[in-house]
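Usage

Read records sequentially. Each one opens with the input sequence:
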Amino acid sequence: MKSVSPRVLGAATAFGCLVIAVVAAFAVDGRLDRQWVMRGITLLLAFGCAAVIAGSGARRTRRIIGLVGALMFGLVFPTTATTWSKPPEIAFALKVADDANAAATKAARSTVTVEDVRTAAQARGGAVGSLKTAKSPDVRGADAFPLILRAKPDQGPPPSLPVLHRPRRKNPPLLKKPGADRSG
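and closes with the structure output:
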């Protein structure tokens, strides 16, 4: 069985990484994707791994390391970054923004008002402003930009995770130097 030339394998890997990076970048709404620097660095790392594949004709270990790196930087990182950039809350906010923009256009205005956003959010089953709770009785983000959008009217802020700290000792034991307790 004839093996593939390392240069051909490296070029094919680089081309595949480029295609995946471009498709993953265009799969995200342009209003959301603020990860262009990370995507560029990841693509450069994938090209570096493809160069390792192309330059390591004799060493099988280098080729395997290059393939694993190209798989990580060329496939796994771009696809996970694309998946993580589209949570359901963001999809709701984009739909509300589109509806509010359409309402402003229909009313022959060039700007979107808070009332346009509130009407669009309520039409989609959501609400504007922070949830009124016993801890924070004041509603924030409901009457001026930037607004707080909630996909469900009873949705509060995400629960914060408790931070666990290990209790510190008042006087940690000091390390003794070897031979310090010898008498003599």
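Summary fields computed downstream for this record:
- The mean pLDDT is 79.
- Residues 15 and 47 are 9 Å apart (CA to CA).
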